[in-house]
């Protein structure tokens, strides 16, 4: 952290020095600046490559997923228009990205009202990165993400799903599984704004708005604010949800070549924590039963099962562009406070008097809080001419995190601490952990001939974790130190201004999660590593956009665990080992074409995926065999709309696919599909109304489960639900 603070505070001095040193020859440097968008014939395709800037009436401007002509790994770009006119207004970022190739997301309570187990190519939460304006964030213990606590759909300008480890310059703790990159909207030089109101199924309502100040003074200060409030009774019984989010942004030019940007986001969300149910329960109470009820004597009473989250995310960015020299520094912090009570058993298998013979409702109060502080400093310099035309990049990311977790057993009726009959203390968990991460890279972008870019790079990773405390009445603790050097190589060739091909080979790495230290196995478990091979083609014209890619990922040191007793008849503890490896491979594609001048377009994307164990040759858990999204988009004059069908192929849950005499049919989840239909009308250029329907044909397929051999639990597709929205832009 001290290193990050020194970088953050010292960069202002550095910027001033750089500005003074090269101001005199800025004009000359600018003439030498190498910019990929200046390649011959690419000016037009550059507009087609940004859905937020693409000319109206072109395929690239449609709210579809699409690749990027300059990418070096498979990528899907979801524009602001997609977020506003296709994704449901209450969507979180996982509900936004679920229509992309190889992506699966479960929202049993309704989109945006707590997503579950989103995967990309079979990589699960914690095995891919999520970034905000380029900054990785997440739970420092398991590398996962509290989806509802950060950046709801109305706060986002676009979402980019990168299905690959990125180049050496990609920072993060789980780059091998890809990156879901979230972006805030830029400020504008003219005042503008938008307000909206929505109401829908489950007594769901939302009000949202944003405003841009434009240039506020002679020194060019620009600012913006974005706010949304969402409330719902939930689509599951008694699974209420309430969220407030506000995002501020200020851009301040510091002279002609340097900009200081401040961004701050604050989120508060409170919801009733439901859980998947066995078939005997859903047969009795229906598919919308998540273990909650209105009985104060029950562990499932909705007021006893609450998750109250408070999150914040702030960064201060200093950006300088001096022609052939550019730098960027982001000093940031983010944190999450997560607390609330919960019943011991929402499956109904443990009566109250088993744990509290003297009366009461057994439960626990959980507290978790983490804070990250870090700095990302990058710089680049254009070099050479002719076949030596290139750009040299270097950067460093330093981050320190702290996390505290506490759990105390209580009588939920009074919220007073109680010792269960099966325990010796009310304090189940008290742990403290810290992590220190440093990643540095050197990358060379070489342009030996027109339209060809070759980018080799190398990255050094150092990761340290410490843990101390008590978990399940057993002392835990220790330290883990992990380091590695990763290489990457990517190439992109623009065959024509609107046609490009790319190839990538890159290494990936992830340090063991905190539960490895809890099991005392840090000396026996190696970090998970991957080698990624990918190739693809991207094609864009005013009437058609398409991309196709193939990938092969060799995943080593897959971490798994087994439960073993400590001594004869002792307590069970998780023992972690490296099970072996997994081969991920597949084909992915996206396609959208306009059907004449009718305003109607056909769109489709999909994937054929495989993720099998090297040792058993069986499919791993939560990896779909295929995905598809097919439908039509209409936009002409005042009327617009979309009709899209998402298909998810067979996948396995729990332990994954099983075979032979150990075959467990409960691990196999059925293929399923759902249809989303949106129709909107522009009453005036500034006023529009929109009706959105999710799961139009009310399919109620099982979409997630625990794979238990007996009495397994499942989540199901949310029932057909509607939202109606009115939006005014000014």
Description:
The protein is mainly beta. The strands form 5 sheets. It has a 22-stranded antiparallel beta barrel. It has a 5-stranded mixed β-sheet with strand order 1-7-8-5-6. The two termini are 43 Å apart. The protein is built from 8 helices and 36 strands. The protein is globular, with a radius of gyration of 26 Å. The chain has one domain (2-729): TonB-dependent receptor, beta-barrel domain (Maltoporin, Chain A, Beta Barrel), CATH 2.40.170.
- Please work out how many helical segments DSSP would assign: 8
- The overall pLDDT, averaged over residues, is 88
CATH class term: Mainly Beta
The third-level CATH topology is Maltoporin, Chain A
What is the helical fraction, as a range of percent? under 10%
What is the CATH architecture annotation?
Answer: Beta Barrel
Strand content is over 45%
Beta strand count: 36
Rg of Cα set: 26 Å
User: What would you call the quaternary organization?
Assistant: single chain
Major sheet details: 22 strands, antiparallel, barrel
Low-confidence stretches: 1-45, 561-576
What general form does the structure show?
Answer: globular
The termini sit apart by 43 Å
CATH superfamily: TonB-dependent receptor, beta-barrel domain
SS class: mainly beta
């Amino acid at each position: 952290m001290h290193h990050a603070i020194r970088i953050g505070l010292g960069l202002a001095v550095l910027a001033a020095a750089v500005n003074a040193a090269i101001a005199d020859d800025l004009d000359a440097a600018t003439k030498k600046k190498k910019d990929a968008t200046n390649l011959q014939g690419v000016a037009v395709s550059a507009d087609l490559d940004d859905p937020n800037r693409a000319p109206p009436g072109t395929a690239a401007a449609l709210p579809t997923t699409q690749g990027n002509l300059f990418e070096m790994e498979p990528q899907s770009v979801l524009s602001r228009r997609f977020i506003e006119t296709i994704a449901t207004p209450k969507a979180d970022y996982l509900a936004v990205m679920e229509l992309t190739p190889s992506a699966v997301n479960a929202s049993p309570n309704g989109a945006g009202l707590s997503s579950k187990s989103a995967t990309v190519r079979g990589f699960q939460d914690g095995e891919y990165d999520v970034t905000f304006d380029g900054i990785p964030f997440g739970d420092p213990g398991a590398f996962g993400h509290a989806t509802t606590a950060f950046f709801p759909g109305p706060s986002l300008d676009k979402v980019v799903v990168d299905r690959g480890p990125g180049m050496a310059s990609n920072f993060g703790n789980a780059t091998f599984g890809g990156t879901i990159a979230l972006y805030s909207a830029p400020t504008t030089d003219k005042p503008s704004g938008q307000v909206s109101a929505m109401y829908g199924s489950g007594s769901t309502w939302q009000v949202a708005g944003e405003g841009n100040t434009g240039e506020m003074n002679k020194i060019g200060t620009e600012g913006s604010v974005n706010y949304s409030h969402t409330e719902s009774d939930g689509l599951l019984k008694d699974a209420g949800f309430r969220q407030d989010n506000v995002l501020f942004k200020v851009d301040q030019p510091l002279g002609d070549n340097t900009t200081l940007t401040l961004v701050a986001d604050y989120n508060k969300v409170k919801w009733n924590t439901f859980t998947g149910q066995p078939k005997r329960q859903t047969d009795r109470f229906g598919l919308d039963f998540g273990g909650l009820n209105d009985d104060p004597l029950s562990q499932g009473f909705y007021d006893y099962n609450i998750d109250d989250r408070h999150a914040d995310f702030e960064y201060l960015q200093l950006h300088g562009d001096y022609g052939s020299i550019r730098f960027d520094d982001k000093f940031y912090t983010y944190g999450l406070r997560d607390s609330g009570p919960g019943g011991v058993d929402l499956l109904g298998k443990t009566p109250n008097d088993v744990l509290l013979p003297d009366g009461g409702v057994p439960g626990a109060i959980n507290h978790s809080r983490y804070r990250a502080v870090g700095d990302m400093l990058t710089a680049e310099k254009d070099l050479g001419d002719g076949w030596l035309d290139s750009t040299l990049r270097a950067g460093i990311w330093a981050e320190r995190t702290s996390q505290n977790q506490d759990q105390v057993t209580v009588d939920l009726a009074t919220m007073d601490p109680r010792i269960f009959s099966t325990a010796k203390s009310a304090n189940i968990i008290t742990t403290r952990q810290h992590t220190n991460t440093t990643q540095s890279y050197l990358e060379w972008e070489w342009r030996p001939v027109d339209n060809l870019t070759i980018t080799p790079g190398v990255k050094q990773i150092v990761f340290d974790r410490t843990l101390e405390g008590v978990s399940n009445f057993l002392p835990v603790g220790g330290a883990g130190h992990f380091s590695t050097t990763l290489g990457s190589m990517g190439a992109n060739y623009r065959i024509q201004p609107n046609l490009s091909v790319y190839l990538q080979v890159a290494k990936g790495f992830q340090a063991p999660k905190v539960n490895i230290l809890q099991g005392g196995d840090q000396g026996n478990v190696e970090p998970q590593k991957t080698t990624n091979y990918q190739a693809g083609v991207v094609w864009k014209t005013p009437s058609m956009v398409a991309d196709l890619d193939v990938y092969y990922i060799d995943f080593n040191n897959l971490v798994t665990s087994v439960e073993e007793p400590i001594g004869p008849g002792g307590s069970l503890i998780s023992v972690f080992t490296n099970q072996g490896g997994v081969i991920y491979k597949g084909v992915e594609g996206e396609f959208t074409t306009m059907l004449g001048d009718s305003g109607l377009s056909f769109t489709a994307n999909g994937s054929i995926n495989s993720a099998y164990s090297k040792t058993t040759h069986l499919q791993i858990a939560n990896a779909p065999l295929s995905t598809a999204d097919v439908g039509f988009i209409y936009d002409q004059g005042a009327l617009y709309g979309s009709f899209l069908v998402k298909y998810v192929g067979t996948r396995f849950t729990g332990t994954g696919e099983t075979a032979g005499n150990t075959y467990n049919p409960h691990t196999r989840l059925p293929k399923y599909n759902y249809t989303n239909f949106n129709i909107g009308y522009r009453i005036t250029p500034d006023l529009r109304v929109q009706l959105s329907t999710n799961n139009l044909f009310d399919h109620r397929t099982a979409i997630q489960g625990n794979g238990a051999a007996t009495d397994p639990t499942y989540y199901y597709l949310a029932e057909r639900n509607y939202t109606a929205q009115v939006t005014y832009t000014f």
